Amino acid sequence: MQSTTVAMPPLAETPGPLLARVLDWPSKAARYLGGAALVAIMCLTAADVILRNLFSVVVPGGMEMTGLLMIFVALSTLSLVELDKGHIRVDVVLNGVPEFARLPLNAGGLLLTLATICLATQQVFRQSMYQAGNGIMTGVLSVPEWPFALAAGVFMALFALALLRNLSSATRDVVRLRDVRSLAILAFFAALALAIVWFSFRPADLPFEIPRDMRGVACILLCFVLIFLGVHIAAAMAISAVLGISLLVGPAASLTSLGTTTLDVVRDPTWSAVPLFTWMGLIVVASGFAEGLYRAAYKWIGHLPGGLASASTVACAGLSSIVGDTLSGVYSMGSIALPQMRAYGYDMKLATASIACAATIGVMIPPSIAFIVYGMITEVSIGKLFLAGLLPGILFAVILIAMITVRAMINPALAPRGERSGWQDRFATSVETWPILALILTVLGGIYSGIVTTNEAAGVGVLGALLISAVMGRLSRRTFWSAIEQTLRLSTAIIIIFMFATVFSRFIAISGLTGQLAQLIVDFDLGKYELLAAIVAFYVLIGMFMNALPALVLTVPLFFPLAMNAGFDPIWFGVICVIMVELGVVTPPIGVNVFAISAMTKDVSMYQIFRGVFPFWFAFLALVGLITLFPQIALFLPSLM
C-alpha cells in the first residue's frame, strides 16, 4: 500500500545541536565526578578490609559514605549512556515493522520515557528539599544528605535533557517522512503519555471503572506493552508502577514512593559490588590476561576432537566469571579464538555458537551480577548464591565440552583436532594464568572464609587487579580511565533498571497479584514440579524477547513468592532463574550474545549462528534437569558456610 503524504512547511532547525552543546560540559563533569566516586569507593572498601583484619581498626562511616558515593557512580553517566543510546530497550517490534511505523514508535517510546524521567526527577528534587528543610543527616558521620539527593536530581535532569535531544532528532525523522500514518502514530503516543501522567495524578478521572483485582493485572500488561513498544525498560516499570499504586492507594503514595525508593535503592552500599566487580573484569580484559587463559586451555585440551572450541569454552568460562557479564567474554574470547578456529577449518556455525554459549557460564560462576540482582530482590545471601552457582557452572562447562567432543567425533569435519602439547608446555602456559587464579582465589576465598562481604571482596579484587596489572606493566593511564568510564556506563544501565524495578516490586506487593497467582495455581491443582516446569517454560518464552537482567528483574518478584510457597529452596531457585534467563541471550530473535558474535564474523549470518546454537539448548535443559534431580549440586557449597 502506498503511503499517504501531506504538504509540510520547510523544516526548521531542531534544538538538537543546541542541546548537544548544553549537555557537553555538564555530562563530562558528571562523568569525572562518577569516576572519582568509584575510585573513592574502592579505596574506602579496600582500606576498611585491610585495617580491620590487620589492625582491628574500622574506617568510621565507611559503608555510609559508600552509599552516598554510589549516587554519583550509579547516576552520573545517565545522560552519556542515553546520548550513546545505550540504555536497555526491547526493540524486536521496532526492527520488524516498516519505516513509517518504526520511526514514530521510536519517537513515542522516547516521549513516554522522557515523561517518566521528568516525573521521577521532580520527586527526587522534592526529596532533596525535604531533607534540607528538616536537617536530615547521616547516622555516623552526621553528613547532610540533601546535597547528594540534589546531585541525583541534577544527574536525572541531565538524563531528561539527553532524552529530549534524542526525542527531537527522532521527531525530526518522523516529520521528514511526510506520512500521515507516522504522524498519527506519534500523536497516539503523545496522547498515551498525557493520559498515563494525568491518571497517575487524578485516578478518579478514569472514564470507566476497573475492578480492584484487575488493576494490578492491567498495569503489568501495560508495562509489557510499553516495553515492546520501545520504551526504556526502567521507565516502563516506573510509570506502570506509579499508575498502579495511584489506582490502588492514591497519587500521593505513588509519587512519594517514586522519589524515596529511587534514592533508597541507589544509595544502598550493597550495590557497590556491581561497579567494582565490573571494573575488576574490565581491567583483566584490558590487561590481556584472557590470551594467557586461552593458551593454557588450548595446551591442555586442544588435541581433543573439537579441542579449539572446547578450549575457548574453558577460557570463556574463566574470563566471564571474572568479568561478571557475558558480552565481555564474547568479545574477548571471540577475538582470540575465532581466528584460530577459522584457520583450522572449523565449521563456523559450531565455532561461533560455542563461544556464544560458553560466555553464559560466567554468569553462574562467581562473581555474578545476575546473582547480585537476584539477591537484592529476594534478600537472599549473595555470598551463598555465589557459591551455589560454582558447581553448576563447572558442570555446564563439562556438558558443553562433552557435546562439542561428541559432535566432533561423529563428524570430524565440523571441528578438527589441534596439536598435542607436551607436559612442559602445558605447565608453562598454566603459569600465565596466575593473575586470574589469584583474583578468583582472593574474591571467593575472602567470601567463603567470612573475612569479607561480597562488596568488600569486590573492592579488594579491584585493588588486586590494579596492582597486578601495574606490576606487570600492563596498566597505562589510558587503560585505567577507559576501564573506569566503561564501568560507569555499564553500571548505570543496570542499576537504573533495578532502581525503578523496586518501585514496580512495591506495586506488585500492593496489588496482591502474587496471591492471585497462588490461588490460580491452587485452582489448577499444579504440583510442585509442574509449577517449576511452567516457570521454566515462561522463561524460555520471555527470553525470546528480553535480555537476561531485565527478565530477572521483572519476573523474580512474581515467581519468588510462588516458589517459596511451593517449598523450593530460595538459593536453589535463584540458580534455576539465572540459568533460564541466560538461555535467553542465545535465543532468537533477541539473543544478544549472537548479535555480538555476529558483529565479529561478517561472513556468518545470525541465522547460521542461531542454527549452531540450537543443539546447545539441550545443554541448558540437561543442566536444569540435573539440578532439579540432584539439588545438592547447587546447595552443597552454600551449606558449608
Description:
The structure is a single chain. The protein is an all-alpha fold and 641 residues long. The radius of gyration is 25 Å and the shape is globular. Residues 1-15 have low confidence and may be disordered. The protein is built from 28 helices and no strands. Helix 17 (382-410) packs antiparallel against helix 28 (632-639), helix 23 (528-543) packs parallel to helix 25 (570-583) and helix 24 (548-565) runs antiparallel to helix 25 (570-583).
Percentage of residues assigned to helices: over 70%
Parts with pLDDT < 50 across at least 5 consecutive residues: 1-15
| Spatial extent as radius of gyration | 25 Å
Work out the helix count: 28
Describe the main β-sheet briefly: none
- Determine the N-to-C terminus distance: 66 Å
The secondary structure category is mainly alpha
Globally, the shape reads globular
The average pLDDT is 85
Proportion of β residues? under 5%
Number of strands: 0
Helix and strand sequence? HHHHHHHHHHHHHHHHHHHHHHHHHHHH
